[in-house]
Design a protein that fits this description.
The complex is a heterodimer of chains A (85) and B (337). By secondary structure, chain A is mostly helical. Chain A has a domain of 44 residues. Helices cover 84% and strands 0% of the residues of chain A. Chain A contains 2 helices and no strands. Chain A is elongated. In chain A, 16% of the residues are buried. Chain B has 337 residues and is mainly alpha-helical. In chain B, helix 1 packs parallel to helix 7 and helix 9 runs antiparallel to helix 12. The chains are: A mainly alpha (85), B mainly alpha (337). The interface between A and B is medium-sized, with 32 and 33 residues.
Amino acid sequence: MKFLDLKYFILFMWGLVMIACISIIFIIAPISKYLVHQKNTIILLQTSFIQAILAVIIVGVLIYLLNKFKKIYLYKKLLSKDKID
Amino acid sequence: MYLPTHIEFIIVTIITTSISFLISLIITPIFIKYLTLKGKLVNDKHKPNKPNIPRPGGPILLACFVLSELILFFFTGFHEIIGIVITAIIAFVIGIIDDFKTMPGWFKPTALILAAIPLVIFHANENQLNIIFGNVYIPLLYIPLILIAIPLAGNTINSIDVFNGVATGFLIITMCPLLLSTLLFGKIEFFLIELPFFASLIGFYRFHKYPSKIFPGDSGTLLMGAIYGSFAIVSKSEIIAIIALLPAIMNSFLFLSSVRKIVEHRQIKSRPIILKDDYSLEASKDKNAPITLVRLILLDGPLSEKQIINKIYKLGIFSSGLSFITIILQYLILNIK
């Protein structure tokens, strides 16, 4: 499997999904762990809001990384095509 | 209320799965004739002489799905089934509007939010999100996630439907890890609910595969995507489904990041691929043309339509393989815990 194979792009995306899962487990999930028996709606809303913001930040960072990878991938792909041409 | 035993449920599922498969196999040729008589035809632009192909095939998929799922509902009483059926019907209506009238780019993603609402009303989700390494308790956050997930799934499948049979074939491949994940991490009942849809896809693929005798249209692809997304939510297999759909997600991401706005593909002036005189396809050299999965595939050189379809299927098999690896990983983590 060459680097320029599209499977590498998918593999990279899979890696990002795994990073997102790990981030959620270790950063976002612990915030609401104490809420399982919590009945206070305000605290529940506040926590959910914080979790949502953190999730958006994580997704934003991952999309930024994916965009960077896309640019490198396209640059190398077009460079190798020019060499062949 | 009468609750069926597992054996009874399995028997009914076998019957509904067979009905779903047979309906798509028997009704599709009749529906092809009906659409041809009514003149509901579109050109297959990638073939010599541009043959006219009937469209849309979405009503067949909807009929198979609704009939089989309603039988299962009357037998089991699972309220989640009604939620999924209404979601599918709304996605189908949105698609059929787009089939007969070219709508602006924002229409499908925005309107599909409506399709997600029944899943919230019927509480098809659990409050915990399953994310491979454990579960996250997000009762409030899960609702916006559903409202995002259904439009994403619908549009992702819709955007990959560029060649004969791709949407159906790709979905059949990516349904395999979803079925296994449902069996392992969801409820057995949901696995049995997914089978009739899988069967109808196989039946429909016989007519949609290269060279197509019918196109599903937006009504078919949005319906397929919405059902797939709904199954992922009810079976606690959201991440597994995302991984299986990665080639299609990649296609949407490449398109959106190059165009930088939500736009209907028919409104794009410079095409990402060029049809050559010998009916092979090559990547466009136009810098303004959007980047798509097919354009990336064609950067290695011109290919025929059939070869591109096979390459997309291979990517689907690869991403489904990654989904299976993730399922194994999750299974091992659950057992260690």
